[in-house]
Amino acid sequence: MGFDLAFSIKVFSALFAIMNPVVNVPMFLALTDGATPAQRRRVASTALIAVAIGCVLSAVAGAQILALFGVSINDFRLAGGLLVLLIALSMLHGAPSAQHASTAQERADVDRADSVAIYPLAIPMLLGPGSIATMIVMGHGAMANGHELAFAAGLLAFLALLAVALLAAPSLARHLSPRVAAITQRLMGMILAAIAVDMMLTSLRAVFPALTR
Q1: How many percent of the chain have pLDDT more than 70?
Q2: Which of the residues 36, 45, 131, 166 has the least number of beta carbons within 10 Å of its own beta carbon?
Q3: Average pLDDT over the chain, rounded to whole?
């Protein structure tokens, strides 16, 4: 099959909405407060590698791991859609998602800038349950429909944008007002809600074929 641009854009949009680099830039700066520029670059690079590995593993092996527990991809698609919808609703209300946020105590327990790269920055702030569920569902869909190239393009495009956001965070923060962040969060919440509904409807149509008539 040829390159599916629409699917590639869908992958990029889902990742952008759920990980939202715009909203996470202030959090990245807060977690690395007092760090040198070199330390910040090291934290950003480590987090990016962790997110990339997590996304690829979820997309490639997620369905096989679910099968070991006797869970079908349609069952997981419905559950994942519900989880993503909850995250989207939190974003629409301007509140941080409990699934993708670390607590104040957890942040206080991190005593060195270098130690925040994997936890809590990469996991769960960027690669949380919602991100993993989205990657498993979209990765399975890509392999089932021959859209692996489109999936890879969407993922790489997002990772490139995330890299720019983290590495240029100090510069971006000077031009990123709270109002812009709030508007972006709510807009991405709407997009994420639509993706979540699509995931749930796809699962329900597979279980109840009559719904497609």
Answers
A1: 88
A2: 36
A3: 87
Q: What is the pTM of this model?
A: 0.84
Stretch among 88-97, 117-126, 151-160 having the lowest mean pLDDT: 88-97
3-24 b/e with 16+ CB inside 10 Å = b? ebeebbebbbbbbbbbbbbbbb
Give residue-wise pLDDT tens across range 46-101.
999 999 999 999 999 999 999 999 988 988 999 999 999 998 898 888 766 555 55
3-state secondary structure string, the chain?
CCCCHHHHHHHHHHHHHHHCHHHHHHHHHHHCCCCCHHHHHHHHHHHHHHHHHHHHHHHHHHHHHHHHCCCCHHHHHHHHHHHHHHHHHHHHCCCCCHHHCCCHHHHHCCCCHHHHHHHHHHHHHHCCHHHHHHHHHHHHHHHHHCCHHHHHHHHHHHHHHHHHHHHCHHHHHHHCCHHHHHHHHHHHHHHHHHHHHHHHHHHHHHHCHHHHC
Structure token pair of residue 160: 């490139």
